[in-house]
Amino acid sequence: MRRPSPLPPTGRAAPAADSASEPDVETSARPLGTGGAATVVEGAAARGGVATGSVTESASDADEQPSTGSDSAAAEDRPAAPVIPLGSAERPAELDTAAGQGPAVETPDAADPRVGIREVWRAARARRRALRAEVRRFTVRQRRRRAVWLGVAASIVVLVLLTLGAAYSPLFAVETITVEGASQLDADAVEQALADQLGTPMPLVDESAVKAALVTFPLVESYSLEARPPHELVVRIVERTPVGSIESLAGYTLVDAAGVALSTTPQQVAGSPLLTVDGGTDSKAFEAVGQVMRSLPAAIRAQVTAVAASTPDDVTLTLGGTNTQVVWGSAEDSALKAVVLQSTMAARPPESVSVYDVSSPRAVVVS
Fold this sequence. Notes:
- It is found in: Membrane.
- This protein is an alpha+beta fold.
- The protein has 4 domains: 16-22 and 37-98, no CATH class; 116-167; 174-239, membrane protein fhac (Ubiquitin-like (UB roll), Roll), CATH 3.10.20.310; 242-366, 3-Layer(aba) Sandwich (Rossmann fold), CATH 3.40.50.
- The protein is built from 11 helices and 14 strands.
- It has helices at residues 16-21, 59-64, 69-77, 93-98, 117-138, 140-167, 187-193, 207-214, 284-295, 298-301, 334-347; strands at residues 27-31, 37-41, 176-180, 220-228, 232-239, 242-248, 251-256, 261-265, 274-277, 304-309, 315-319, 324-329, 355-357, 365-366.
- A hairpin with a 2-residue loop joins strand 6 (242-248) and strand 7.
- The protein is elongated and about 130 Å long.
């Protein structure tokens, strides 16, 4: 930005060099009145600068009013107009005062140090509030969905806690023990053995203690527990099926297919066949005998009075009353052999037959 030229000294005209250095401007003459005409210098406004000029008298005015020495002196004493460079943004205060606009007013700076910390803090807080309001407006659906899921989860948790609290409270304590599936066992004896579980909440029933109590009953092959709220505990028992009695020095021992001794009596138990097996209950022959006896239909098993086996492949049954022999062979295809023997006995009763050979179930031999 160019600085304005210094003002000429008071009472003296501007040097000719200054006027010569000014750029060329367009001029136009416009009559000012009837008495004379004045020439106004224009063109600075067209170029973005500040218009300056001087008014001179025309030739006619010069004729009517001849110049005198006093007029020349007055002209020399009149102060010259300030020179303003074209394109300059600065405007002297004298011009504004002359135009009636008054002095220029200063615009307060945005970073005015007189702005206090409180005003800045209030503006920042208002901005944060507006930002939070916009965030809440755009996330209202997400917040509603989250509230629904939280409500459902809280309901489930409360329901689970209430259920657990009720289940582990005395409201669901065991007051009755029911034994099911006992035919050879004494159900009252089993209930007495499990009496220590009375008063215990059902989820806290000690299964290991129940097992220890039922192990003392050899006839129990397996068992299961069932809770029937609010106060009943059901014990389902699967008893062992005896396959026969083994004679020993102590008497007759009733055993099942696994060789578990169920009871020992001085006399043979009625309805149980006498087992004669080489190797005892731990041999393969006894295992084959157990499989054969468990595969027989109840009607045929009730007629068997003796079973003999020296190896797993030569199991032989004896039917009571007629002493009819049934050659069974190995324990393979025992289910098929049982069906074939049943149909053969229906066609040829044991009274008329001495031997049924079903060791080959597809080629039965009757004699």
